[in-house]
Amino acid sequence: MRAMKQSDLSLVIDIENRAFTHPWPKQAFDELISHYARVLELDGKLIGYILCHVIMDEAVVLNFAIDPTLHGAGHGDYLFAESLKELRALGSRIFYLDVRESNAPAIGLYQKYGFSKIGIRKDYYSEPTENAIVMALIRE
Ligand SMILES: CC(C)(COP(=O)(O)OP(=O)(O)OC[C@H]1O[C@@H](n2cnc3c(N)ncnc32)[C@H](O)[C@@H]1OP(=O)(O)O)[C@@H](O)C(=O)NCCC(=O)NCCS
Predict the structure, then answer these.
(1) What is the pTM of this model?
(2) What is the mean pLDDT of each run of 10 residues along the chain (140 residues)?
(3) Measured from the CB, is residue 96 less than 6 Å from ligand 1?
(4) Which candidate, 135, 126, 85, 138, places its Cα nearest to that of 106?
(5) Ligand 1 test: best mutation among 71, 95, 125, most atoms within 8 Å of CB?
(6) Is 9 helix (H, G, I), strand (E, B) or coil?
(7) How remote is the CA of residue 109 from the centroid of ligand 1, in Å?
(8) Which domains does the chain have, with CATH numbers?
(9) Taking the CB of residue 128, how many other CB atoms lie within 10 A of it?
């Protein structure tokens, strides 16, 4: 895992477009790259990324994906766990994220790391319209 650079964005956006039905535009990555943005490389190839917004002791996971051709092989687990560890070391104590209600793999991963459901945002997502589950983790 390493910090995301501006020059990574074309590969990151390629994964984004294949991983999500409603992908982020490039501008959204440009704005967040200066916050907490990490990529995961395997044998020198960029295979995933995570972006978080950090304010005081709170971190919000805003985007997170692994190349769809490599799902289910432990890469998401590694990137998520390493990011949580690093964010904690940087002072984050409360973590939030939103996830599509039907996204069982992501929800399973978040629960594995202690996140629990704290609410629902009705019809939050589009293409297709779907509720978001809001999840949080508080670490003293
Ligand atoms: C969510 C995502 C990052 C997981 O990455 P991955 O590399 O496929 O996941 P891993 O192989 O590391 O699995 C880690 C954990 O996730 C959960 N998980 C993964 N696939 C799962 C599945 N099909 N069903 C249920 N849980 C699953 C499990 O808890 C698993 O831990 P375990 O192997 O000990 O059971 C990946 O599926 C992805 O990029 N999805 C598309 C983008 C996305 O939905 N991002 C999250 C937006 S909120």
Answers:
(1) 0.96
(2) 97 98 94 94 97 96 98 98 97 98 98 98 95 93
(3) no
(4) 135
(5) 71
(6) helix
(7) 6
(8) 2-138 (3.40.630.30)
(9) 9
